[in-house]
């Protein structure tokens, strides 16, 4: 593939789409950086740290930041496996398509169902955090759950309009958001380091301090404080596979998508670690910051002043808005991919692509509707439990992807110039599987994880009802894949 004109790569991707039974309907407007930006914006390292740093301080203490390295290495292993699929199958729907075509449609449907709910809930979580932790403090509004919910609804509507309007616009906004987010992290790291050196206000001892958790007797226990400190890395360094959901809108998907998947999680891991070290060393009063409610903002205010804090909030607001758009777009493509195979409720409507905007309008409106229901109907505690429960879903999905790869990898051909792990594929996948087993233990062992785990089980059960309907009423839908089995030839060649 290396060295061929871009239009040739686009034609190859479109031809594969047709071979798989789909006439290309989405517009290929996303370049390499825009694809990277989509994955990086979903991860949104500054936003993730901003939202979860307080949890680390009160569960694991400042020393808990070093768990970020473990999470970054583990998630990179998973990203390498995900990239193996993305380099060979460039279809919207990512793991849904991979499992459907390489295993069977029934397994693929489960991947698709779990991914849909993970993304749909993630949109709400991001936008609600944008409203309550960035917009309201920025404009001087007092904390209020009802106000935050109304602002969240407005944000959801605006994002839906923009996602429907143009994929090109989505790419421009996310690229800008990523640029701003990168600038935030770099400027804050340099600024905090400079202030600490010049004023002597930093304390490197913070990097090994347990802070307010020093007296916790269950600190090292299973489900204890130290283990809980991993939540920051596990909830932030996810979503790198979102680029694969927009593969049918990428100009050169076989190269740009897998590179974006790996590069985004590596970049986020490195930048996040630098950011965490600078923040933690800059803490002047650990107990006060730990209980401040917004420790990142408190640290910035104490070291750089209130003006810097407001600039930070404004930049974070834009970065969070871009991240929310990415999640909504990825979720709508997930619905579109399942609907065109008649495997999603109201599929005849959900698969419609607007001929002018070349975006799945009804599928996007569905994501908006889910968000509105969650915001307006669920009480605060139930909503929070649902959001916490959604953190278990990507772990299940990633574990499933790794297992799938180990089972079906021999059906995947190696495209010329494409991404490949070569002889390291099995060791990397095995290490990724061990890592995901650890992640699931971390997520389900805390005492307060019972309700979120039940919520996830409920979502799977609800999916089972619709799955049963398809098996009974429309058995052909889950019995065959559209198009040709383009991987059968690969299998024959490998067995020859």
Low-confidence runs? 489-496
In DSSP terms (H or I, runs of 4 or more residues), the helix count works out at 22
Structural class: mainly alpha
Number of strands: 0
CATH superfamily: Amino acid/polyamine transporter I
The arrangement of helices and strands along the chain is HHHHHHHHHHHHHHHHHHHHHH
Largest sheet: none
CATH topology: Amino acid/polyamine transporter I
The overall pLDDT, averaged over residues, is: 86
Helix content: over 70%
Q: Please write the CATH class name.
A: Mainly Alpha
Assembly classification? single chain
Instruction: State the distance separating the first and last CA atoms.
Output: 25 Å
Query: Which CATH architecture?
Result: Up-down Bundle
Radius of gyration: 22 Å
Characterize the overall form.
globular
Tell me the count of domains: 1
The proportion of strand residues reads under 5%
Would you mind describing this structure in some detail?
The chain has about 500 residues and is mainly α. The protein has one domain: Amino acid/polyamine transporter I. Helix content is about 70%, strand content about 0%. The protein contains 22 helices and no strands. It has helices at about 5-20, 30-45, 45-60, 65-85, 95-100, 105-140, 145-165, 165-200, 225-230, 230-235, 240-245, 255-280, 285-290, 295-305, 305-340, 345-350, 360-375, 380-390, 390-410, 425-445, 450-475, 490-495.
């Amino acid at each position: 593939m290396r060295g061929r004109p871009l239009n040739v790569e686009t034609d190859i991707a479109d031809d594969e789409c047709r071979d798989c039974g789909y006439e290309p309907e989405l517009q290929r407007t996303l370049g390499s950086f825009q694809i990277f930006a989509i994955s990086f914006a979903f991860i949104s390292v500054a936003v993730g740290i901003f939202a979860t740093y307080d949890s680390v301080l009160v569960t694991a203490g400042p020393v808990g930041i070093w768990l970020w390295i473990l999470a970054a290495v583990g998630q990179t292993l998973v990203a390498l496996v995900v990239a193996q699929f993305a380099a060979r199958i460039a279809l919207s729907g990512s793991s849904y398509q991979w499992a459907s075509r390489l295993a069977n449609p029934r397994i693929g449907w489960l991947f698709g169902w779990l991914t849909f709910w993970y993304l749909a809930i993630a949109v709400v979580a991001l936008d609600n955090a944008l409203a309550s932790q960035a917009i309201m403090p920025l404009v001087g509004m007092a904390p209020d759950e009802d106000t935050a919910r109304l602002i969240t609804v407005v944000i959801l509507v605006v994002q839906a309009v923009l996602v429907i309007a143009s994929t090109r616009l989505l790419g421009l906004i996310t690229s800008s958001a990523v640029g701003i987010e990168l600038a935030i992290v770099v400027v804050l790291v340099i600024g905090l380091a400079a202030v600490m050196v010049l004023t002597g206000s930093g304390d490197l001892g913070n990097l090994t301090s347990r802070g307010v958790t020093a007296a916790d007797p269950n600190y090292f226990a299973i489900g204890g404080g130290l283990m809980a400190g991993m939540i920051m890395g596990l909830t932030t360094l996810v979503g790198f596979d979102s680029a694969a959901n927009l593969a049918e809108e990428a100009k050169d998907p076989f190269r740009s998508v897998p590179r974006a998947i790996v590069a985004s999680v590596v970049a986020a891991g490195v930048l996040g670690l630098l950011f965490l070290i600078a923040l933690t060393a800059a803490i002047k009063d650990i107990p006060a910051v730990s209980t401040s409610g917004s420790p990142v903002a408190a640290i910035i205010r104490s070291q750089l002043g209130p003006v810097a804090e407001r600039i930070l909030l404004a930049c974070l607001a834009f970065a969070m808005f871009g991240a929310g758009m990415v999640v909504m777009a990825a979720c709508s493509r997930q619905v579109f991919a399942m609907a065109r195979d008649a495997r999603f409720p109201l599929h005849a409507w959900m698969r419609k692509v607007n001929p002018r905007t070349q975006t799945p309008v009804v599928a996007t409106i569905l994501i908006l509707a889910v968000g509105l229901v969650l915001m307006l109907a669920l009480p605060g505690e139930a909503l929070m439990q649902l959001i916490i429960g959604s953190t278990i879903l990507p772990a299940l999905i990633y574990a499933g992807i790794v297992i799938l790869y180990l089972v079906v990898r021999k059906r995947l051909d190696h495209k010329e110039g494409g991404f490949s792990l070569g002889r390291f594929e099995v060791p990397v996948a095995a290490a990724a599987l061990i890592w995901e087993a650890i992640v699931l233990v971390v997520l389900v062992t805390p005492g307060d994880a019972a309700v979120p785990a039940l919520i996830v089980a409920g979502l799977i059960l609800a999916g089972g009802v619709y799955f049963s309907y398809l098996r009974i009423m429309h058995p052909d839908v889950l019995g065959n894949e559209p198009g040709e089995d383009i991987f059968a030839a690969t299998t024959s060649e490998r067995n020859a």
